[in-house]
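pls design
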Protein backbone atom coordinates (compact mmCIF):
# COMPACT_ATOMS: atom_id res chain seq x y z
CA UNK A 1 0.00 0.00 0.00
CA UNK A 2 1.73 3.20 -1.16
CA UNK A 3 0.87 6.89 -1.04
CA UNK A 4 -2.62 6.24 0.35
CA UNK A 5 -4.54 9.16 1.85
CA UNK A 6 -6.31 8.22 5.08
CA UNK A 7 -6.31 11.84 6.26
CA UNK A 8 -9.23 12.42 8.62
CA UNK A 9 -10.81 9.03 7.96
CA UNK A 10 -12.60 7.05 10.67
CA UNK A 11 -11.65 3.39 10.32
CA UNK A 12 -12.92 0.53 12.42
CA UNK A 13 -12.09 -3.17 12.46
CA UNK A 14 -9.48 -3.12 9.69
CA UNK A 15 -7.14 -6.13 9.64
CA UNK A 16 -3.81 -6.33 7.83
CA UNK A 17 -1.08 -8.97 8.04
CA UNK A 18 2.36 -8.89 6.43
CA UNK A 19 1.55 -5.64 4.64
CA UNK A 20 3.90 -2.78 3.76
CA UNK A 21 2.33 0.66 4.24
CA UNK A 22 4.60 3.25 2.62
CA UNK A 23 4.09 7.04 2.66
CA UNK A 24 0.51 6.66 3.91
CA UNK A 25 -1.00 9.86 5.32
CA UNK A 26 -2.95 9.00 8.48
CA UNK A 27 -3.12 12.62 9.68
CA UNK A 28 -6.22 13.16 11.86
CA UNK A 29 -7.32 9.56 11.24
CA UNK A 30 -9.33 7.71 13.87
CA UNK A 31 -8.54 3.98 14.06
CA UNK A 32 -10.72 1.93 16.38
CA UNK A 33 -10.24 -1.79 16.93
CA UNK A 34 -7.90 -2.23 13.96
CA UNK A 35 -5.30 -5.01 13.83
CA UNK A 36 -1.91 -4.95 12.08
CA UNK A 37 0.28 -8.05 12.38
CA UNK A 38 3.83 -8.32 11.03
CA UNK A 39 3.32 -5.12 9.02
CA UNK A 40 5.90 -2.50 8.04
CA UNK A 41 5.13 1.21 8.19
CA UNK A 42 7.59 3.39 6.22
CA UNK A 43 7.37 7.19 6.25
CA UNK A 44 3.77 6.99 7.52
CA UNK A 45 2.38 10.20 9.04
CA UNK A 46 0.37 9.40 12.17
CA UNK A 47 0.17 13.13 13.00
CA UNK A 48 -2.76 14.06 15.28
CA UNK A 49 -4.24 10.58 14.75
CA UNK A 50 -6.15 8.81 17.52
CA UNK A 51 -5.68 5.05 17.74
CA UNK A 52 -8.05 3.29 20.13
CA UNK A 53 -8.13 -0.39 21.06
CA UNK A 54 -5.97 -1.25 18.07
CA UNK A 55 -3.16 -3.80 17.82
CA UNK A 56 0.22 -3.46 16.09
CA UNK A 57 1.86 -6.83 16.77
CA UNK A 58 5.45 -7.37 15.61
CA UNK A 59 5.28 -4.33 13.35
CA UNK A 60 8.20 -2.21 12.13
CA UNK A 61 7.98 1.59 11.96
CA UNK A 62 10.66 3.33 9.88
CA UNK A 63 10.90 7.13 9.60
CA UNK A 64 7.30 7.56 10.79
CA UNK A 65 5.99 10.76 12.33
CA UNK A 66 3.98 10.62 15.57
CA UNK A 67 3.23 14.33 16.10
CA UNK A 68 0.49 14.84 18.69
CA UNK A 69 -0.60 11.21 18.20
CA UNK A 70 -2.77 9.46 20.79
CA UNK A 71 -2.71 5.72 21.51
CA UNK A 72 -5.47 4.58 23.87
CA UNK A 73 -5.52 0.97 25.13
CA UNK A 74 -3.49 -0.25 22.14
CA UNK A 75 -1.18 -3.25 21.84
CA UNK A 76 2.13 -2.43 20.20
CA UNK A 77 3.82 -5.65 21.31
CA UNK A 78 7.20 -6.29 19.68
CA UNK A 79 7.09 -3.06 17.68
CA UNK A 80 10.41 -1.83 16.28
CA UNK A 81 10.81 1.93 15.82
CA UNK A 82 13.66 3.22 13.64
CA UNK A 83 14.38 6.92 13.05
CA UNK A 84 10.83 7.95 14.01
CA UNK A 85 9.78 11.29 15.54
CA UNK A 86 7.61 11.31 18.67
CA UNK A 87 6.64 14.95 19.27
CA UNK A 88 3.89 15.24 21.93
CA UNK A 89 2.98 11.53 21.65
CA UNK A 90 0.42 10.42 24.27
CA UNK A 91 -0.04 6.76 25.21
CA UNK A 92 -2.66 5.74 27.77
CA UNK A 93 -3.10 2.12 28.82
CA UNK A 94 -2.22 -0.79 26.60
CA UNK A 95 0.79 -3.02 26.14
CA UNK A 96 4.07 -1.94 24.51
CA UNK A 97 6.09 -4.90 25.81
CA UNK A 98 9.17 -6.03 23.87
CA UNK A 99 9.19 -2.81 21.81
CA UNK A 100 12.47 -1.51 20.44
CA UNK A 101 12.82 2.23 20.96
CA UNK A 102 16.62 2.37 21.20
CA UNK A 103 18.10 5.86 20.79
CA UNK A 104 14.65 7.41 20.24
CA UNK A 105 13.98 11.03 21.21
CA UNK A 106 11.11 10.69 23.69
CA UNK A 107 11.56 14.03 25.46
CA UNK A 108 8.00 15.24 24.87
CA UNK A 109 6.07 11.97 25.27
CA UNK A 110 3.55 10.95 27.92
CA UNK A 111 3.09 7.26 28.77
CA UNK A 112 0.44 6.59 31.44
CA UNK A 113 -0.47 3.16 32.84
CA UNK A 114 1.28 1.31 30.01
CA UNK A 115 2.90 -2.11 30.15
CA UNK A 116 6.42 -1.88 28.66
CA UNK A 117 7.94 -5.07 30.02
CA UNK A 118 11.31 -5.97 28.51
CA UNK A 119 11.22 -2.99 26.16
CA UNK A 120 14.53 -2.11 24.49
CA UNK A 121 15.13 1.53 25.48
CA UNK A 122 18.91 1.79 25.52
CA UNK A 123 20.21 5.33 25.00
CA UNK A 124 16.75 6.91 24.69
CA UNK A 125 16.40 10.66 25.30
CA UNK A 126 13.46 10.84 27.69
CA UNK A 127 14.60 13.78 29.81
CA UNK A 128 11.53 15.75 30.84
CA UNK A 129 9.12 13.06 29.61
CA UNK A 130 6.26 11.52 31.59
CA UNK A 131 6.23 7.79 32.35
CA UNK A 132 3.68 7.42 35.17
CA UNK A 133 2.33 4.06 36.26
CA UNK A 134 4.43 2.33 33.58
CA UNK A 135 5.64 -1.26 33.98
CA UNK A 136 9.29 -1.05 32.90
CA UNK A 137 10.26 -4.33 34.54
CA UNK A 138 12.94 -6.14 32.60
CA UNK A 139 13.40 -3.18 30.25
CA UNK A 140 16.89 -2.54 28.84
CA UNK A 141 17.59 1.10 29.66
CA UNK A 142 21.40 1.35 29.78
CA UNK A 143 22.51 4.80 28.67
CA UNK A 144 18.95 6.19 28.81
CA UNK A 145 18.34 9.76 29.96
CA UNK A 146 15.31 10.21 32.23
CA UNK A 147 16.65 13.38 33.92
CA UNK A 148 13.78 15.59 35.08
CA UNK A 149 11.17 13.03 34.00
CA UNK A 150 8.02 12.17 35.93
CA UNK A 151 8.41 8.48 36.79
CA UNK A 152 5.94 8.29 39.69
CA UNK A 153 4.22 4.94 40.10
CA UNK A 154 6.36 3.18 37.49
CA UNK A 155 8.26 -0.05 38.03
CA UNK A 156 11.90 1.12 38.13
CA UNK A 157 13.45 -2.24 39.03
CA UNK A 158 15.36 -2.28 35.70
CA UNK A 159 16.91 1.14 36.28
CA UNK A 160 20.45 1.33 37.63
CA UNK A 161 21.28 4.96 38.46
CA UNK A 162 24.91 4.20 37.61
CA UNK A 163 24.00 3.56 33.95
CA UNK A 164 20.83 5.65 33.56
CA UNK A 165 20.56 9.41 34.11
CA UNK A 166 17.70 9.99 36.55
CA UNK A 167 18.88 13.28 38.05
CA UNK A 168 15.92 15.41 39.09
CA UNK A 169 13.33 12.78 38.12
CA UNK A 170 10.11 12.78 40.16
CA UNK A 171 9.62 9.49 42.02
CA UNK A 172 7.82 8.25 45.14
CA UNK A 173 9.41 7.14 48.42
CA UNK A 174 8.79 3.51 47.50
CA UNK A 175 10.61 3.98 44.20
CA UNK A 176 13.52 5.64 46.01
CA UNK A 177 13.87 2.49 48.12
CA UNK A 178 13.87 0.34 44.95
CA UNK A 179 16.63 2.45 43.39
CA UNK A 180 18.67 2.39 46.60
CA UNK A 181 18.36 -1.39 46.82
CA UNK A 182 19.42 -1.60 43.18
CA UNK A 183 22.61 0.18 44.21
CA UNK A 184 23.24 -2.53 46.79
CA UNK A 185 22.16 -0.47 49.81
CA UNK A 186 20.49 -2.22 52.74
CA UNK A 187 17.41 -0.08 53.34
CA UNK A 188 15.93 -0.55 56.83
CA UNK A 189 13.13 1.28 58.63
CA UNK A 190 14.20 3.56 61.49
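designed seq:
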Amino acid sequence: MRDEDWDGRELSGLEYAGTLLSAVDMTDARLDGCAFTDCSFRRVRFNTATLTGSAFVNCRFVQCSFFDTTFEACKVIGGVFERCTFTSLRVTGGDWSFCVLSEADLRSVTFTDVRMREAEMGNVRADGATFTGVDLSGAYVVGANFAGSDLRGSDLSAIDPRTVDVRGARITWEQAVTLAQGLGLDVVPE
